[in-house]
Model the fold of this input.
Amino acid sequence: MNRQIYLDYNATVPVLEKVKNSLINCMNFGPLNASSVHYYGRKGKNLVEKAKLNIARLVNAKSDNIIFTSSATEAINLVFNNFNTIVVSSIEHLAVLSSSKSNLIIPVNKNGVVDLNAMETLLKKINKNRKEILVSVMWVNNETGVIQPIKEVINIAKKYGCLVHCDAAQALGKIEINLNELEIDFLTLSGHKIGAPSGIGALINNNKFNLTPQILGGGQEKGIRAGTENIFGILGFGEAALIMSEMPKKNDNQVKYLRDYLSNKIKKIRPETIFFGENSDRVSNTLLIALPNIPGDLALMKLDLESFSVSSGSACSSGKISKSHVVSAMGYQDLASNSIRLSFPPNDTILESEGLITTEELDNLAECWLDLK
Ligand code: PLP
Done:
C-alpha cells in the first residue's frame, strides 16, 4: 500500500515534534492556571509571557501588544467588532469576509493581486463622509499563495486616514514579517499554520488601539479577551514561533523545488491545466490548479483514493466543498468549482521534520492528474 502523502499544509501543519515534547513536559509538570497567584500560577504566567516573547521576536513586534485568542478567526472578529466601516479585498478568507459583512470590496486582477487603483478610488469615495475606516487585506492568500503588495496597501490606506488589519495566517513561517517596518495596526495569526496545536490564535494590536472586548469575564489578556488561558496552545504557539525564528532567512529552496517539479510535470503531461496566480509573487509551497471540465470534488476524491490528501475549492469547516470565491474573484467564474490546492510544508525546516516528499511520489501524483476524466 502507498504511503499517504499529505499536501494540505495550508489547511493545517501537523504539530512539530519539538512542540510535542515541550507540551508533554508541560503537561507532566502539573496544574497551570496562569491567573493563579501561587507557584503553579506564576509558572503558567511565565510560560504565557515567554510564548509572547517568541511570537514577538518572529514578527518583530512588542510582546506587550499580543493578545491570545482561540484562533485567527476569533482575533479577526475581535478587531472587526470594533469598526462599523470595513473595506476588504475580494479574496480574503471567510473569517474576514463573514465577520466584516462588508460590501466595500477591493477587487483583484487575473493574477490574484489586489487592484491598488481600485482601492484608492474606493477609499477616496467613502472617506469623505465616514470617520473611522478599517482596511483589511491579507498578506498571503490561502488558496493561490499570492503575496499581496502589503506596503502599497498600507501607504494608500494611511493616505486616507484608515486603520489597517492584515490577516497574516498564511504568511507566518513562509515569508518574513517585520512589523517594525510597516504601519500595520492589527495583525492576526494562527498557531496551527506553523506547527502548534489548533485552537490558538493571536492578535497583535500594534498601535495599542483601544479595543472593546467581545468576550467578558475574568479579565485575562489585559481584559481584552477573557477566559482561562489555553496554556498548552499558547506554549505550543510560542515553541513553534521559536523554531520559525531560528530558521535561516531563505528557507524554502526544497519546498519550491518540489512544487515547481510537480508544476512542470503537470504542464508537460496535461497542458490544458490552468495554474492560478502563477505569474505573481507567490509563496513557494502553494499550487492552485484546475482542469476545465473536471469538478474539484471529483478530482479530490480520485486523488484521495490514490493516497494524496489535497484540498479543493474554499476549505470548509463542515467538510463540504463550496465554489472558490477566490477563483471567481480572479475572473475565472467557470472554474470556481474545479480548483485543487496542493500545499507543501511552509518551509524546508518543516519539510525535513515531516519526512521528505520524493519526486517519484510527485510523478505518481502527476500521473493521477493525467488520468482524471
Ligand atoms: N486566515 C487565513 C488566510 C487562513 O488560511 C485561515 C485558516 O485557514 C484563517 C484565517 C483562520 O485561522 P484559524 O483556523 O486560526 O481560525
The longest helix spans residues 39-59. The chain has a mean pLDDT of 95. The first strand starts at residue 5 and ends at 6.
